[in-house]
Amino acid sequence: PLLIETATIPMIANATTDSGLQGALIDAGITKHYVPVLDDGCILYLTKMPSLDTIFNKLSLISVQPIAKIMLASSYIFLGPGPAQLLQLIEETGSVREASSRMNISYSKAWNILNTIREQTGFEAVLRQQGGATGGSAQLSQKGKDLLERYISFERRCQDAIEKIYIDVFESKHE
Q1: What's the pLDDT tens digit per position in 110-121?
Q2: Which of 49, 77, 109, 116 pairs with 128 at a CA distance of 20 to 30 A?
Q3: pLDDT tens track for 150-167
Q4: Distance of CA 132 to the CA centre of its chain
């Protein structure tokens, strides 16, 4: 898999090389960063290509994986993957409208989510400034940032624990 920054695409496209993508990256002065990938189906080296049967057998063994949706609730569920993404996008874009547009949800639904977070936590997670001719802005409050960071950390730790439990239950040899 490749992750290429949009701004670098013209440099890669305009590179003059006969050495393929690798040469274009070098020619454009772009540094590659390797990320370990556990799924052997993502990376195949042509010089070490196993048979298709070997690949399919291996993939079928690793194609089942645990998936859990981690949510926080008080009287009602108020934070999960969707609301967390909304908070992240508000912080990134500075706009509830832009964040809701990127998530493909209505502006009013975004505010319903934010109001539920406020009602269940007792604090404003998002601070907004009314706009005028230039438009308004929004940003996470300090408590909103803290809530999001803690949720992300909690969610990661839960997923790690679930993965370990899955391996123990499904992949360990039980008698």
Answers
A1: 999 999 999 999
A2: 77
A3: 999 999 999 999 999 988
A4: 33
